[in-house]
């Protein structure tokens, strides 16, 4: 939430456009949290490296994919990319993953928003806002179920608040090319780490 506040200048013009995204994050985060309570995280754990690999590749290709999509809708004047059943379905899917497990969700969100055609600074701001919704509803689900370790949660919230605000502010100021390169580097590093820890570490 701190990251979204730091990048609020990019979000303010969107207005009602945000509502379907917020609802998708709310529904997906709730469902993901309930799935985790019901069955543990073993299923998504083995998928994480593949999801990160796909998300990083899609994000790297998003300038070309975004131009292709923009060309297809060039006759539909709009200040921002329109919502479609496919795009909202993708956001719900990412939100379910975020509520269930969450590792690397930001890369998945950046890939989705960038491919839709959002400028990178706005995509980063949207990622921060929707992530806050997903994690908040999932955490509330765990609190109600009595499955929260409060000491660890306090540490995580402190780090997330500081890091989120700093990241949101930097995302507004960094040149898009530098920010994109940094995201690809982080995504690639996380992909390699999760492939190693999932399939090769003893």
TrEMBL record:
Transmembrane spans: 17-38, 50-70, 90-113, 125-144, 150-170, 177-196
Keyword list, A-Z: Cell membrane, Membrane, Transmembrane, Transmembrane helix, Transport
Annotated Pfam families: TauE
Keyword Transport attached: yes
This protein's GO CC annotations: plasma membrane
Family statement: Belongs to the 4-toluene sulfonate uptake permease (TSUP) (TC 2.A.102) family.
Name this protein carries in UniProt: Probable membrane transporter protein
Species in which this protein is naturally found: Ectopseudomonas oleovorans (Pseudomonas oleovorans)
